[in-house]
């Protein structure tokens, strides 16, 4: 059975990793998927699979406004775009701080603000925001500004959920542990010794492995579907047991 049949879904950062896996899973569950990314080439595999694809830099205010006007109301809005800055507070200068908050927080605020009026007029929908276990939930070494941005995502998620709870809008956040994606591969390579870096990521997961983008995509389908009609304002942690230790 198609769990998202008849629904329209917009996904940001669908060019890679969790966003791409989720666009595919939404499609497989019968949704009409509008897959967006700053990198149009990265979306080409989704083109051939039946998604509509658009170049969208979520940090571009005018582009977000124009895109929302163009699209109208989706049933599902998955805000997935985000960047992991590596370092402590002393490694994070003003520009790095600004970039992370612009992409991880302000862009998500703009997407929700741009799409909410049409979604309210259409009597509701499910907004899913990508947070992280590294947020208000727990700290990880060298994730100073990243953790701060993802804590902000949780705050925005809860606030939107509270304000529109009687108007058909649900808003939940996904908080993954470590997930194998292109950017994780880059982060492991950037640490010099790939195997040691990978072993360190695995070691902090009690389950003894890194998660897959597909495992997060399945959770996104659940939150997008009417199966979770009674769930809003929640932060769903999916982390191989990391935060259970
Ligand atoms: P990724 O980082 O490998 O890929 C991200 C995609 O985002 C790329 O296709 C890139 O082109 C696109 N992108 C970058 N800047 C953009 C912009 N300004 N506008 C639109 N698209 C842009 O993907 P991932 O690792 O699966 O991460 C996706 C989300 O999941 C992020 O918010 C990340 O913080 C979060 N997350 C990831 C992990 C993990 O371990 N991978 C864990 C927790 C949370």
TrEMBL record:
Annotated family: Belongs to the short-chain dehydrogenases/reductases (SDR) family.
Keywords: NAD, Oxidoreductase
Protein name (record): SDR family oxidoreductase
The UniProt record lists the keyword Repeat: no
Gene3D superfamilies per record: NAD(P)-binding Rossmann-like Domain
Listed InterPro entries: NAD(P)-bd_dom_sf, Sc_DH/Rdtase_CS, SDR_DHRS6-like, SDR_fam
């Amino acid at each position: 059975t198609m769990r998202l049949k008849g629904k329209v879904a917009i996904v940001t950062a669908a060019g890679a990793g969790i966003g791409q896996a989720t666009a595919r899973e939404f499609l497989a569950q019968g949704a009409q998927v509008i897959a967006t990314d700053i990198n149009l080439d990265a979306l080409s595999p989704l083109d051939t699979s039946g998604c509509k694809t658009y170049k969208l830099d979520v940090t571009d205010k005018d582009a977000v406004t124009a895109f929302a006007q163009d699209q109208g109301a989706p049933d599902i809005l998955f805000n997935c775009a985000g960047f992991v800055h590596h370092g402590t507070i002393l490694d994070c200068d003003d520009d790095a701080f600004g970039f992370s908050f612009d992409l991880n927080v302000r862009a998500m605020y703009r997407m929700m603000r741009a799409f909410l009026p049409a979604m309210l007029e259409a009597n509701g929908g499910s907004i899913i925001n990508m947070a992280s276990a590294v947020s208000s939930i727990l700290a990880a070494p060298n994730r100073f500004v990243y953790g701060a941005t993802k804590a902000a995502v949780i705050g925005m998620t809860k606030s939107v959920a509270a304000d529109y709870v009687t108007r058909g809008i649900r808003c939940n956040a996904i908080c993954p542990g470590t997930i194998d994606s292109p950017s994780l591969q880059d982060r492991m390579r950037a640490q010099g010794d790939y195997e040691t870096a990978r072993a360190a990521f695995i070691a902090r997961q009690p389950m003894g492995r890194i998660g897959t983008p597909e495992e997060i995509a399945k959770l996104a389908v659940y939150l997008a579907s009417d199966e979770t009609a009674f769930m809003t304002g929640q932060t769903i942690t999916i982390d191989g047991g990391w935060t259970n230790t």
